[in-house]
Queue: 2 jobs
Job 1
Amino acid sequence: MLLLMVVISAACQPQAEEPLPTLAMLDTPTPVTPTATWTPTETLIPTSTDTPTATSTPTVTATPTNTPTATLTGTPLPPTATSTHTLTPLPSNTPVPSATDTPVASATASVPVINSFTSNIASAAPGTQVILTWSAEADSARIERLNSAGVIQETIPVPPVSSSTLTVPAGETRVVYRLVAVRAGQETSLSVAIAVSCSTSWFFSNASAALGCPSATATNVIGAYQPFQTGFMFRVQYNSLDKVCGYQQDRQRYSCSNYQPYAGTPPATPPSGFQAPGADLQSVYYNQLAIGGPWYSVIGWGTSSMTNPTITLQPDAQGQLYINLPNGIFRFDAALTSGTPTQIR
């Protein structure tokens, strides 16, 4: 450009006429035409940490933020990436599981649980079949049958979920079936009770249901009875038994021995106002030991003479014998050995 302007300026000046020189042919310069619009060739991919830098003459200034923005002097291309995340909603036909679709283990998973335990009847006669149905969450289970006194009479292993048909036993006024569920060494239980009508009645009225039912009808026998200073003695013959029993009031204990006639001479005579033992009681009174010594030394002398009353006896299904004596109704063991009697009335 500068060379062209010098040539033009020289041509405009007045010149003395002189011979024209030989015109030299110069190379024609190619003018450079500036372009008003610049298009950057770099593709800027902004991120949250990169600082874009333009290497061409136009200055590109990028200010990084969470959403980067680039300022260009020309007409920049739109960014090819964006930091904005687009959520894709689930299709409407995609089921969303509820809280009950996925089981969640609870903190009591190791504890046995009984969901139900039922009986098809609430009362029955002996020999009636009862259907028990149950459901438990446990490793194992069992059914226990209890008598009227709450004593376990039978134990049956069963699955945790099942049903069973059992027979109501005789000799009870109330039968309790108890389901026991076991898991990880822990137990839980649930019971159902069935009232049982006795096929045989007690010889005494208004018997408590806790006594259960008698296992046989009552028997009346002629026996012997005599009260003493600190106890009493009696003789009964029942089935194959022929027993003489004494009761120590201070110890609340009884013990019985087989009856034997007394063939000796009494070692002592009672003081005034007291009685010697009757003939049915003499052998045991003088020759057998009670708890703490001979009977004559632990219960004293008779406070009245021996009598021969009618004595009523009746057994129950638990191996106990109810005896009606002149001083009350007592429960002894069925074999009449020894123990603590229970006075019923």
Job 2
Amino acid sequence: MNTHDFTAARRLLAGAASAALLLTAWPAQAQWLGQDYATYGVPMSNFIQLATIHNLNMIDAATPGDKKSAPASAPAPLRAEAPPAVQRNAQELAQRFPAAQRAPMAQAYQDSMEVYQKIEAKMGWSRNDVGGAIAAFVVGNYMAMRDTEVADEEFAAVARQMRNHPRLAGSFKQQSAASLRNLYEQSAMVGTFMALAQKSLQQTPQPTQQANLRAAARENLKLVLGADPERLRISARGAVLE
């Protein structure tokens, strides 16, 4: 990652003991990214339900430049107000992995949530910002799929898209507080996990695991975008489907 990367670059998380431990442990954890990861993908039940219903919204949200859909002024960030449910959401994400991998995967997702909250604070966002977490999901999977880096300003641009698109925001406001909490936490966990795994595999290349990670990232993006993820590009403009 370069010095502008939004993910767990040492610059962003200097002095954060939990994040340092997570990054140190990740090469060993990369063994979990075997064929099972590519096969099982990410069982994000709440996110999948919303994405399936609102695929067109996700496509629109990832296509900037539509003046008709741009609000006159930026709305207040939509926040997940329900009590945290990190352990339960991490266990849910890990549930459909093989039994022997569920406990370590659940812990990895919990650790990823801690890392994300430090990133969230570093970006200057309010805690529990749903748009930022969805952007983390999109950007983290994009990084893993393309084995590339994303700068802070690019990540921030995607988050603005997710916050500001009126139809996407409107669909989320119809969800219960508990559903928004699940969406926020699961999106943040998976996006951060994918970015951390990508970074780890850059530092310690493992071709099979890298291929499986890319495959999983591609499927995650295909699900939420409702379009070929190879069309997705992220830049200072935000996310664009070319």
